[in-house]
Amino acid sequence: MKLDADLGPDLDELMQRIRADVNRRQRDADVKGSDSAQSDRPVVNGLTPSSGASIPLDNAGPSNATVSYAELCALQDVEFVRTAYRVLLHREPEPSGLDLYVGMLRDGAAKAGILGAIRYSPEGRRVAVRIPGLGRSYATQRVFDTPFVGRVLETLATPWIARQALREQRRIAARLADVSSRLQAEAQARSQDRAELERAQEAMRRELKHEFERAQEAMRRELKHEFESRLLTMSGIVHAQADKIAILRGERSPGTQRDMDEFHAAFEDRFRGSRDEIRDRVAIYLPYVRSASAGSAAAPILDLGSGRGEWLEILREQGYVARGVERNRALNDLSMAKGLNVLDGDMFRYLAELPDNSLGAITCFHVVEYLPFDLVLRLFDEIVRVLRHGGLAIVETPNPENLLVGACSFYIDPAHRRPLPAQLLEFIANVRGLVRTEVLPLHPLSPATSMQGESELDREVSRLLYGPRDYSIIGYKAEC
Amino acid sequence: MLGRIGVVAPQSPTRETGGAERFFHGLVDALRREGHSAELVPVLVDESTFETIEESYLRAYDLDVARFDTVISTKAPTYAVQHPRHVCYLVHTMRVFYDMFEDAFPLATHEQRRQRRMVLDLDSACLDPARVRKTFAIGHEVRERLQRFNAREAEVLHPALGLDSFSPGPYGDYLFLPGRLHRWKRVDLVIEAFRHVRTSLRLLVAGTGEDEAHLRKSANGDPRIVFLGRVEDEELRSHYMNCLAVPFVPLREDYGYVTLEAFASAKPVITCVDSGEPTHFVRDGETGFVCPADPKLLAARFDALFEDRALAARMGEAGRRRTEGVQWTHVVATLAGAMSA
Questions:
Q1: Chain B contact set for A290 (CB, 8 A)
Q2: Are B180 and B79 found together in one domain?
Q3: How many domains does the structure of chain B reveal?
Q4: Contact B58/A15, CB-based, under 8 Å?
């Protein structure tokens, strides 16, 4: 199974090969384009162009490539000659030329000499690639190459060479001084960094103290609100008791109302879905509540038309402070049996008693479709009034954009007044003062997983028939 | 006893950081949390030319790790390190010589083919069982590639998140697509899908990269598509927290922290059948969608999630549960078992 790989080369052997390659390249880079590696002639300072400088090739064609003298001289043997041809003549070498120059190199000829010979050949002059320094270097090379004359010149040139060497030394000394001053600046910068770190620490200490004080204050406020909210609950209970007394005294007829309530409770069971289904559906709003920081004692949640209390139950499980208002006693009894904080009665009456800016969130699921239009407007007005700044409002209702809902299922509930398209409800929310509103499509019939390969028309029709059956408007009261 | 553990990790000369860097730090931190003495050992790795790649292999091979009792190597070429107790937790080899070779060099020269052979030989030799006690791979994709190209075996060990504190949030009206803007991530596929999106869904793209200009151009001024550029960790978490879902459609991705980050934020992930490791996490129709790399099909899934947020919530939550088990404690225990074996 592993046969193939095990027959491959050994790692140590491979690494040895790489090390040889890397070392060779390193050596070539170190001599920086001089020919000392191959020639025993002394290196003449000032004659070798400074390494690393990129030399633009004037006639290098459309590529506009640059090649440095050092790069050129770093190449060896055949590769050197081929590249020299490409750079200086813009063509591949002819076999005879290749042989000639490779032979010269192997005999120890200087690279500057070969570059010069190619560059200053008739063809090289025509192409005329400019490589600064090469001309002088080549000329000198040629003179030194001449037998006897070269030897004499070399002797004569020695004081000049020495001067050049001195100049080079000075240049290096200047660079050293430059580097050392930069190092000094670096050291200074580091000590500044340390001072900055200490300042930051101090700032953090101050901030922590401040944070602590703020938290204390917030706790105080929260306790106060908790107290107020309990008072409010008590007042709700008193109201409910008063209602009951009125019925007992015969001032209000209980029978008909009770009948309607029981009818509607049964209706909810049959048509709106089981308690578990409703629980699943409303859980989607939890993240909104969390990110609006609602549900503390200071910013409680109010659920208008709380029905059987599924939502309040979930909120309680999550540790949120919430209460509900529901006028249907049959439904409310169920909530109360679970110990949920719900009030019997008319939501508008309850809302009217609430102070401004007192709630963290108001939710209102499947209520607006039962209201006459003026009350829909009033509902939004009240929501905006009692919400705290930044408080969250969620209003869910059937979606008439689904044709089956708009044409039929909406009317199954005899108490429904008229469907409210999302555009209308969002418009009302906006004009009555909710901001950052968003329409959330919900509860489509079609399983979203089975849509592979359908045509546009299929998708459009299936959306109209099986698309979202409900939607909700989510919005916020503006920050002050 | 494992004694002192050295985690050998590459450091690019440009000091770029990405998922791999999060992984290295996450691993070292996790080892320390479990009571081991661990240290990150950087090796300078320069992938700009073949010559610098050779030098990088050599640097790893020559690295002095005598002061450690155990060594864990990670990404190419750190596994060239020499140590009698050496375990490799393979992030990836240099893919340009592997599955992306034909893609990167459609007209490869003889020299390029020789270089490819060289790298494959090097990797096979480094991961010879005689040199490495055990090789783990961060995912199935990496394991299969190693099997196919190098005939070396590895065990899949999914790393946990390098960045934490992701939390669930509302299912907003936008898809969030974070990551390097590189051709292999196929961001253009998502942008093209948006031409077929019918709802008012938006797309926020975070990250930078060599393909940025090209991608902006292909978005063609579509106001629904927003490029955020580089984002800080805090902003990243917040976008994950508030988005509807995360489209993640790379080509044969090795791992992709994006999937795990999305699931940690309880967001469904839409990925493609050829996206590699994400398809091991995303179950079609359960924790997101896995669909063919076709803009129209992607768009249909985007719309489906937009029109059914409860579905998005259910899938995201399922995804969160699916990756709950990917924990550093498990990673460290598995590595420790192999190291002391």
A1: 169
A2: no
A3: 2
A4: yes
